[in-house]
Structures are given as structure tokens and as C-alpha cells.
Amino acid sequence: MKAIKCIKYGGSENLVFVEAEKPSPKHNEVLIKIHATSVTASDVLIRRLNEPLITRLILQLIFGFGKPRNPILGMVSSGTVEGKGDGVSSFSIGDEVFAYGSISPTKRHFGSYAEYICLPEDWNIAHKPTGISHNEAAAIPYGGLLASHLLNKTSIGKGDKVLIYGASGSIGTMAIQLAKHAGAHVTSVCSGRNFELVRSLGSDEVIDYTAKNAEDQLGMYKYVIDAVGNSKSSIVKEKSKAAVTPTGKYISIDDGVPLTPKSAFVNLKTLAEKGSIKAVIDRIYPLEKMSEAHDYVENGHKKGNVIITV
């Protein structure tokens, strides 16, 4: 099968287009023929691995020293069931499915930068939401699950004011929609060029973090949600940490290890089928242009998701 392998940590030139062995499904596993995957900020972090020394050592303990233990990166897939192992009962050959290769902090599987992947049927796999394409389905799991993780730390009630910092990224665009679905009054922080996008997703107010004295536009919020973490900051972000009500809470994506339970994954499928959330796609690249896609994501200004067609 065609695949992209990361031959060593570093620049995107280390992502090499190769022929690899097609996986075979084991007991309880589903073989998915992938039609679309995505390039996430987490993929870039693992490929680049230029974090501070202690963090880098911890990551290499998890993912492998010198190069990824599993050289085929990627955790998001949308495609068709082509095979299944003994014991699989939830899926049939030909079913259209989408998946995320992590069910818990200790159960994760890379490999979606390829034509095929095998995953246990009881992990985060579900029938593809009806009415959307494979590209759109591949744009839901990463941002949707991480945004769900953030929102699960809240108890948003109707009319609660919520500020989302980094609102135009893959996590932020989903956080807007999930917060609105919960009844929040949402203020989105992003660059001015993305105002139209975040408003289209339901944002009630917008703040351009690049504008002069932008921090003066901050109000007081029940929840301030940081969807970008420590990788990015600004005066607005620093000031927003104090822009919470006495009973409010500041929540960062970097606080603890994100949880990705199947219940959250199934909820995303349900919301997508109802039209309560929609995929946001910035650019689409073919598999052989993976290095270009990584460079674009690494640049840090993507809107929503970058999708790879396989």
C-alpha cells in the first residue's frame, strides 16, 4: 500500500512517500480503506519533536527515540470497511466509517497516513455521519474530541458567557459550535481575517487579538477556553486569564492529558448528522503532498482543518 513514513524527527522533508505492507485485521479489528485523513497540530509536534529537553525525552519515551516507533503517523481516518477479523459484529464489509486512533491516554494507534489501517472495533470507530463527505468526516474527530474534552470541564448554562481563544483552529471551531449547542453566549478571539468564519459558526462577539488595545474589549466570562495552549500567546490571552467571574474558570488545552472516550466520539457523530456541528476545512492535499501540508499546518495560521485525500 502507499503510505507516508517519518524516517526521523525533524523537518517535513523527513516525511517520505513509500510502499508499505498492507495490514491484516486481527481478532476484533476492522480493516479500513482510507479515503481521507488530516494533518493536526499534534502530528506536527510529534514529527518535529523540538520541544524543551525534558518534554522531548518524555515524548521519545512514548513515541520512540530518534524516529517514531510507528513511522506511519496520523490518527484520523474516514473510509470504507474492507475487511474484519473474527469477533467483529458492529461493522460489515462496505460500511462507510470514520475513526480516531485513540480511546484513552494509554490506548492509541497511529497509521492513517496510508491507504489502509486496522483498528479495534470497540475503539473510536463509527459509521460515517450521513450527509457528509469523507473529507468532512475526517475534519471532525481531532478538533471535536479535544473541544469536547475542554467543554466537559464546564457546566455551561443557557446564556453563560464563554470566551474562546484560538477560535479559528480545528479545536476552536468545534469549541464554538459545542458551546453554542450548550446555550452559551460566545466571544471568539482570532485574527480579523477569520471573523466571518467564526460568526458563521455561531460566535456572538469577536475580538481581533492583533488589534491595538484589543485587551480593552474583554468582558467578564463564566468560562475562558484556551484552544491553543502554551504554543501561542498575546496580551489578550494573558489578560483573559483574569477575565473570569468569581465562579468562573480558565481552561487550557494544555491542562492535563486530553481524554477521548467513545461516548464523546459517538456524540460528535450524532451532532454532525443533526447539523449541529459542521466540519471546517481550510485546504486539501493529496497523500504525496504530505510535506507541504505539514509545512502549512506548522506555519500556524490554518482555519479549521487540513485534509489529506488518499
Quickly list its features:
310 residues, alpha/beta, Quinone Oxidoreductase, Chain A, domain 1, Rossmann fold, 2 domains, 7-stranded mixed sheet, 5-stranded parallel sheet, 9 helices, 16 strands, 29% strand
Describe this entry's structure for a reader:
Strands 3, 4, 5, 8, 9, 15 and 16 form a seven-stranded mixed β-sheet that branches. This protein folds into two domains: about 1-140 and about 280-310, Quinone Oxidoreductase, Chain A, domain 1 (Alpha-Beta Complex); about 145-250, Rossmann fold (3-Layer(aba) Sandwich), CATH 3.40.50. α5 links the parallel β10 and β11. The protein has nine helices and 16 strands. It is α/β, with parallel strands linked by helices. The chain is about 25% helix and about 30% strand. The termini are close together.
Helix content range: 25-40%
Largest sheet: 7 strands, mixed
Portion in strands: 25-35%
Could you spell the SSE succession in H and E letters?
A: EEEHHEEEEEEHHEHEHEEHEHEHE
Instruction: Please tell me the overall pLDDT.
Output: 95
* Total strand segments: 16
Principal-axis shape equals globular
CATH superfamily of the largest domain: Medium-chain alcohol dehydrogenases, catalytic domain
How far apart are the first and last residues' alpha carbons, in Å?
A: 11 Å
Per DSSP, the total helix count is 9
| Fold-level CATH name of the largest domain | Quinone Oxidoreductase, Chain A, domain 1
Structural class by secondary-structure content: alpha/beta
Query: What is the CATH class of the largest domain?
Result: Alpha Beta
What is the number of domains?
Answer: 2
Low-pLDDT regions: none
What is the CATH architecture assignment of the largest domain?
Answer: Alpha-Beta Complex
Structural Rg: 19 Å
